[in-house]
Known about the structure:
By secondary structure, the protein is mainly β. 4% of the residues lie in helices and 48% in strands. The chain contains two helices and 30 strands. Strands 23, 24, 25, 26 and 27 form a five-stranded antiparallel sheet that branches. It has a four-stranded antiparallel sheet with strand order 1-30-29-28. It is globular and about 60 Å long. The relative contact order is 0.11. Mean pLDDT is 89; it is low at 73-80.
Amino acid sequence: MTDDRMMTRFAGHTHAGHDTTPVMEVDGVPVTISVDSDATLWVCDLLGGACVSRRLDLDAAGPEDEWYYEVGEWDEEDDEEDVEAEAEEGDEDAIRPRCEVDAYEIASQLTVAHLDGRPVVVTGGGRFDLSGPELETMGGAVRVWDLRTGRKIGKTLTGHGLGVTSLTTVATDLGLLAVSSSEEGELRAWNVTSGERVAALQASYNGGMGAGLIAGRPIAVTGGHDDFVQVWDLLSGEQLGQSLTGIKPAVRALATVEVEGRTVVAAGGDDHVLHLWDLKSGEPLGAPLTGHTQCIATMGTARIAGRAIAVTGSNDGTSRIWDLARGEQLGDPLPGHLQTVTELSGAPVAVTHARDAGIRVWDLTRAVR
């Protein structure tokens, strides 16, 4: 039977090496974005099926920080003093990075955005993204790449000690923010244009994270291997309200959304249910929403005809749509695991993936009728 909620399907290979496949519009065409294990960027047309590839410019992927070059590496037969002397004399060949960029680890996490009108890809590195002799030179770098050329834009954003576990962007009045959380529980945010670090906070180990705007201000909601969820003001670096309890670890999918004039925090994870809290009071909004039979791993939100909805993706192979004001599921589950909730041609859509059917795009406006 045909499901009239489905807009299109792409059964081709997306070359993805990550858990989710971002989708965006480029020149009016919906495309999937992925980066494979040798740092090749793939862009696949969801309508026509054609894929194009280009290598990310790894020559520019290293950090600009002084520590990246301050020692340098040399062949065993080279003498350290000779190399330093050559560097002082201006021999650029003698100045070599102290660590290397690992193509396999460069895109452990991936998202997409528009920066000053051009489509960009944002990557978060894995644990060994920057492999070197010291822990400080290792994983978790965040980079922004031009989708059309594969060239890096701005600085390589460093600071995580281990791999990035969650990554997103937030468009603000200050510019585009890249927000990431990591294995060691650090939550960081950078202004993509200036490269300035906006926030560096300690959140949950192996952190899940969602970020967005509340009353025009960028916030992030975090969870992980703790039995609570926290909400952070990214500009002040302060926690908003109390820690939200009643959820079991691990927490993997999180979001905040305005629902009928109040800020609602939504979270799901290994306990298979969707939790909702009122941020101001810290109290749960009714009983957790049930339906999934395995871990909730992904989540996205949208607003349709004034109604705030959430879409959750689970390891049970389904995605479910929830009315957050009513606290109820809308319609039958969507087949496939949720990849993202985004807009195509101005309309909110959910993108799912299933091994037997590939990528499918669902019209959320039809889904909530």
